[in-house]
Amino acid sequence: SVPVAVREEKVTVVSGEETIKPYCVVCGSFALKANADALRQQLINDGYPAVVVINEVGRTYRVVCSSFATKEEAAKARDAFKARYPDNSDFQNAWILYNK
Question: In a 3-state reduction of DSSP, which class is residue 45?
Fold first, then answer.
């Protein structure tokens, strides 16, 4: 099986539930919080427990569609997310963030 790549970052939730699990599926990154919030709302409408987090280094807002305790669960969710939106080139770049 292909090893699952994760990117380690320290992030904090700024929109949505306070707690996230360590492995996050990131489906969008924005310089403006308003843009991140708009994507979060779209994902919530589609049934995802989406939150917006901020990476203080670089002040980047990341939209997390779901988060998990294990890397394996996150990888499965990422693959399912990409399969659900085959025509969305941004979503095809979804990746896994490990909140350190």
Answer: helix
Q: With respect to residue 1, please indicate whether it lies within any of the assigned structural domains.
A: no
Residue 81 belongs to domain spanning: 6-99
- Of residues 62, 77, 57, 59, the one with CA closest to residue 13: 62
How far apart, in Å, are the Cα atoms of 36 and each of 3, 52, 58, 88?
Answer: 29, 7, 15, 16
Beta carbons of 9 and 46 less than 8 angstroms apart = no
Rounded distance, CA 93 to CA 17, Å?
Answer: 24
Among candidate residues 27, 71, 33, the one with its CA nearest the CA of residue 48? 27
State pTM to two decimals: 0.94
The whole-number pLDDT of residue 95 equals: 98
- Does residue 4 contact residue 97 with C-beta atoms inside 8 Å? no
- Nearby residues of 58 by Cβ (< 8 Å), 6 or more positions away: none
Mean predicted confidence (pLDDT) in 10-16: 96
